[in-house]
Amino acid sequence: MAILPNLILKSRDTSLIELKDIHFSEKNKNLLKQLLKEFKYINTFREYELPVDNKILLFGYTGCGKTTTAKAIAHKLGKEILILNLGEIVSSKLGETAKNITSIFRKASRENSVLFLDEFDYLGKTRDYETKDSGEMKRIVNTLIQQIDQLPNETLLIAATNHSSIIDTALLRRFQLRLKFEKPSKNDLDIYYDSLLLKFPEKYRNFERSYSISYAEARDITFRNIKNRIIEEEEAKELKAV
Fold this sequence. Notes:
alpha/beta, 2 domains, 6 strands, 12% strand
């Protein structure tokens, strides 16, 4: 069965952020440490027929690093990552979506890779049997549950969603680890702003900081302000040269 063209195989990512450089709550840090140690000693666990926790749900506020975290975990484990946006694989052909999901899981299992399912809520919505599409959605959710249950110990599944409350509870139960990503506090954002500004000259570091936003938004604001300062300097040089 052919793999969908929108399944992206990432072996090297120049934009990768190391796991140690991502801002996590203490609870999330501890869960990730445990995960990494379990995969490190997976062969020893196998001797005692102990499974590793290889199914993780990343959920919560948008723009707080769920995709970045998935990539960083794969890099730390030395595994390739298969990234799939579930909102992009739904087919109008009856039964085609379930076949696509099966194909993708089989590829991840063969390669012992990290399978990252973004927008997990798109196919994991609570089943509503009153709608005309309920039969197809039921097949898709059941296929997803079956593939998750059959996932080999060495393959890591990471699912991400901004809307965990609408996901079918039968799917949620499959995830041993659940990492909640919350909107950062003022102190968290100040630490993040400072970390971003370290590599820039002092003269670019002064600007009005915004709060009650995500890390992604803070990053965009920081870089936009620095670029504007550079543009002002370059335009001033051009005026002097005239």
